[in-house]
Amino acid sequence: MQINNISTSQLQDHELLQWYFKSYQLTATKQNYEIKVFFDNFISLEGFKHASLDCIKDYVNGDVQVRQGLLAAIEFGQRVARAMPKIQGRVLGSQSFGNELVTSMRGLEQEQLWLYSLDTRHQIVATDVIHIGSLRTCPFHIRDVLRRALKYNAQSIILAHNHPSGQAEPSENDLRLSKEIAKAADLFEIAVLDSFIVGADDYTSLREEGAFSVFDELKELETNMKMK
């Protein structure tokens, strides 16, 4: 995105706030004051993210019209970040689904983990963005995946995450996380049908690559032992 031919991703936090406050036609002095008040209250964007409701209310009450507008803009941005193109219908195979994912995830600037919950007929019943950001440096909780799947009474799930580098080669971390999720989901009798790594123009299906083969064999062995 650009503002006056300037990429918004290159702007510092206080510069983005300044552009926002300009939209209210505030004087330069008032703009600088509002920026100072924001960072005096929250120190950083991370501080705002984890601020208590009372702290945010105290901040807004200082200038309700302008600051409520800022909260609305932040919420709107969060909803845009969580929004995802919906792949609907029945999942018939990894190739067609993988190609759909390449189209849907192309151009994402940050790594995102998407979850598809399916019913017994492999019909998609829900789609969720589980995590935005590096899966290595800021790991999500596996329980977040399971909570969403259980919410929709999913019989199976599909995982997908993109590599902003454009390369669809799975990392050791990708393999480990996918297997850990599959193992945890199995405790709730939820099958992981596949886990996709999506690049700029192609994808890797861990199911096709045989990443789940050992896990599947162990499950089959356990089932056979129970039947004896």
From TrEMBL:
GO terms for molecular function: metal ion binding; metallopeptidase activity. This is MPN domain-containing protein. GO terms for biological process: proteolysis. SUPFAM superfamilies: JAB1/MPN domain. The lineage of its organism: Bacteria, Bacillati, Bacillota, Bacilli, Lactobacillales. The keyword Metal-binding applies. InterPro entries: MPN, RadC_JAB, UPF0758, UPF0758_CS. Residues 90-212 form the MPN domain. Gene3D superfamilies: Cytidine Deaminase, domain 2. Keywords: Hydrolase, Metal-binding, Metalloprotease, Protease, Zinc. Belongs to the UPF0758 family.
